[in-house]
Amino acid sequence: MRKSLILVVLLLAAGLLKAQEPTATYMVAQRDTCNLYMDYYAPDPVQARLEDGSLKPTILYVFGGGFIMGRRDDPSAVRWFKILTENGYGVVSVDYRLGLKGVKMKFDLANLVKSADYTKKAVDIGVEDVFSSVRYLIDHQEEVGVDPYNLVISGSSAGAMISLSCELETCSPTERTAVLPEGFRFKGVMSFAGAIMSDSGIPKYAAAPAPQLLFHGTDDKIVNYDKMAFGRRGMYGSNSLVDKVYAKNGYTYCIYRYTGHTHDMAANMVPTWPIQKEFLETNVIKGVARTIDATVDDPDMPLWKGFSLGDLYKK
Question: DSSP string covering 42-80, please?
């Protein structure tokens, strides 16, 4: 018995056992290449209720993986889901089609435009699929038990890119938002090493976006911390979005710039939970227009070194 308990502890520490199983799983859409599912993790019912009787928002999570891999039930994310649900936040973790899977990506000067176009298309496909999940929540809100108008969209890496673009498109409607009710909006955005891919220059919002929480490593070269632009095509990372868009227009945001960190901030959802909690309670639930711009040097924050785009997309 003692050996079994020790083995369980070791497996949990190594991330080989899930911290939590979903309450329910739903098929939300059928595509030519695959079916799309969502997992719902119900919150602690006591913690979910606010003093006025209303419920805390649900976190809509979009996984990362460079648009070539990843899964909605990744063990590292599921451990974060457990923290969220224990604190009263339900979680909906969604599928999307991997738009770069099987695509030969090259990042030399001669192929940058083509790679940017491939990536923009992958983001657009992801946005379409996430909006299908939102539509499912709207049509089945009583069955699932989620208020679709009280969602905070969140994502890691590629999922953060999709999440930021979902917010942009709900503020500046496109053909992809046609599936949603007119005027649909998210309550907030939490981005872990995200960016916006654009083929029309610096992103512009027709309406002010929801409060944004941005985590990014200052040395991130996979999803650029600042920007990579050529003509009207570009990847606009957290620093560029804040400096060129959010601060300039008076939008509400909280950015945490982790010095010396690379793309590891895409996976640091658990260590940054206290910051997320404050953002959710203050900016989202209380509606306080609180802006924070913090440069963080934290030796305890997990750190990756030597990981590049070439490593991610090598054949």
Answer: PPPTTTTB-TTSPBPPEEEEE--STTTS--TT-HHHHHH
154: part of which helix (H) or strand (E)?
strand 151-156
In sequence order, the 6+-apart residues with CB closer than 8 A to the CB of 241 are 164, 195, 196, 203, 214
Q: Is residue 232 part of a domain?
A: yes
CB 63 within 8 A of CB 71: yes
Per-residue pLDDT at 112: 73
Helix H, strand E, coil C: the string for 215-274 is EEECCCCCCCCCEEEECCEEEEEHHHHHHHHHHHHCCCEEEEEECCCCHHHHCCCCCCHH
Interatomic CA distance for residues 308 and 65, integer angstroms: 13
Specify if 9 maps to a domain.
no
Rg of the chain over all Cα atoms, to the nearest angstrom: 19
Report the C-alpha gap between 93 and 37 in whole angstroms.
9
| 3-state secondary structure at position 298 | coil
Q: How many domains does the chain have?
A: 1
Strands 24-30 and 233-237: unpaired
Contact 196, 160 (CB under 8 A): no
C-alpha to C-alpha distances, 36 to 29, 126, 301, 309, 313, nearest whole angstrom? 5, 11, 34, 27, 24
Q: Are 223 and 263 in contact (CB under 8 A)?
A: yes
Q: Chain centroid to CA 14: how far?
A: 24
We report the CATH number of the domain holding residue 195 as 3.40.50.1820
Range of the domain at 142: 22-300
Q: What average pLDDT does the segment 29-56 reach?
A: 96
pLDDT tens-digit profile of 126-154?
999 999 999 999 999 999 999 999 999 99
pTM: 0.92
